[in-house]
Design brief:
The chain is an alpha+beta fold and 77 residues long. It has 2 helices and 3 strands; from the N terminus they run E-H-E-E-H. The protein is globular, with a radius of gyration of 13 Å.
Amino acid sequence: VVTYPSVQDADAIVKSLKSSGFRAFVKESARSGGRVFYMVLIGGFRTVAEAQAQLLKFRGQEVARPFQDAFVRTNRS
């Protein structure tokens, strides 16, 4: 959904997304140079098709207006 340098900002978005019915969570991401960012994700999907369907639903919600560039990311290698 979005990435922030502040865990507080990321947590605020997660709270908002959860109150709108999404399974949102924060994942810490260490970048080269040691800088840490906090990714806000919506997840728990069994298939890419399920994730794509949820993305379409997400984009239709008011809470998603600032995040229209959100995309499906897989954990596959």
